[in-house]
């Protein structure tokens, strides 16, 4: 079809060339882009079908009076004529300019032969937009396991019950989300989770990085978005804990007590119990220069550095503590130790 039509149009041109002056091919053509689209087709009825999506400029190849306009990648070609608009999708608009009336004859790939266009104003539209930043949505417990089982906080995250979040997005990336009643929001990245005070987040498309609240996440860091419910204890804490007052009794067999703590001044930390969740216990940060030391029943020791704030322990299944959302303790012992003051050795 194409060569035949091409010849048909070329013939008069060649004849004209021989007889009088060759009419020039000056059919209107424009590769639209995000910066010139509103100005050129902003009033077109089809403009709203394009404006909400990511766009790119089409590639235009022309030779004499013929032209080929197409999009690369996942983009769909949309051509705006004066009154109508044609979605060519992955097809290219192969047109020939008829110099006698300066109208385009275009093969739109529909199989219906050539269509006449007064102008060829094209834009590439991504109707299936993808967010430049990586994110995953947790819809249920199985997906949480799939996405998070190698996460450092999995011991904590695995205790939650997950449900589907509803994403809010005005662009190709979500900016916030909602949870069903009774469910809490959680955002997890490669290193930690945030589950309090989350309101919005934003994909920085230039760096492909997320900013969540006030935290800018490093390049390429992913987000996992979900809603969860946590089991709470109705009555008193079933796991064992102690704000240690007499370490010589309570920690007598502990290696770290024998070799270290016993040499320094110490005092018990304050404990804070949750009103609503009887499975939750906090050791308050010790008053300087004391450092908070957390000890398990036997060997495990965590030195909690100053200014980190309180330490939260969560009693899981009534038998073990989860500390810093990562470590499990059979016994949750806290003691404040002043490493700056050695005790005078007993006589
Ligand atoms: C264009 O957008 C309108 C309104 O959003 C919609 O009703 C219509 O189906 C769209 N047309 C095409 C061809 O996408
Ligand atoms: C005791 O442990 C603290 C914290 O790790 C350390 O700074 C200090 O040097 C230790 N003291 C002794 C005597 O081992």
From TrEMBL:
Protein name per Swiss-Prot or TrEMBL: Uncharacterized protein
UniProt keyword annotation of Signal present: yes
UniProt keyword list: Signal
Span of the signal peptide: 1-16
Organism: Caenorhabditis brenneri
Record carries keyword Signal: yes
Domain of life of the source: Eukaryota
């Amino acid at each position: 079809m194409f060569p035949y039509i091409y010849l048909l149009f070329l013939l008069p041109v060649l004849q004209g060339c021989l007889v009088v002056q060759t009419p020039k091919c000056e059919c209107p053509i424009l590769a639209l882009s995000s910066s010139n689209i509103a100005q050129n087709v902003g009033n077109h009825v089809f403009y709203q079908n394009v404006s909400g999506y990511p766009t790119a400029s089409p590639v235009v190849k022309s030779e004499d009076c013929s032209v080929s306009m197409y999009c690369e990648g996942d983009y769909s070609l949309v051509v705006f004529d004066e009154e109508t608009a044609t979605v060519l999708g992955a097809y290219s608009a192969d047109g020939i300019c008829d110099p006698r009336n300066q109208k385009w004859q275009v093969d739109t790939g529909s199989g219906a032969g050539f269509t006449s266009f007064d102008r060829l104003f094209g834009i590439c539209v991504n109707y299936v937009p993808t967010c430049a930043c990586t994110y995953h949505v947790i819809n249920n417990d199985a997906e949480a396991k799939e996405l998070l089982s190698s996460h450092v906080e999995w011991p904590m995250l695995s205790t939650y019950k997950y449900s589907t979040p509803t994403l809010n997005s005005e662009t190709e990336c979500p900016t916030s989300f909602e949870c069903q009643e009774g469910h809490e929001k959680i955002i997890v990245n490669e290193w930690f989770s945030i589950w309090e005070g989350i309101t919005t987040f934003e994909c920085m498309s230039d760096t492909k990085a997320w900013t969540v609240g006030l935290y800018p996440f490093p390049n390429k860091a992913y987000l996992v978005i979900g809603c969860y419910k946590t089991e709470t204890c109705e009555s008193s804490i079933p796991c064992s804990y102690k704000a240690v007052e007499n370490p010589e009794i309570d920690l007598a067999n502990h290696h770290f007590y024998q070799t270290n703590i016993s040499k320094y001044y110490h005092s018990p930390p304050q404990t804070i119990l949750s009103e609503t969740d009887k499975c939750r216990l906090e050791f308050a940060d010790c008053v300087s220069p004391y450092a908070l030391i957390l000890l398990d029943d036997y060997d495990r020791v965590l030195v909690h550095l100053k200014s980190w704030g309180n330490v939260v322990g969560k009693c899981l299944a009534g038998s073990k503590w989860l500390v810093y959302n990562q470590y499990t303790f059979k016994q949750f012992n806290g003691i404040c130790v002043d490493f700056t003051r050695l005790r005078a050795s007993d006589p």
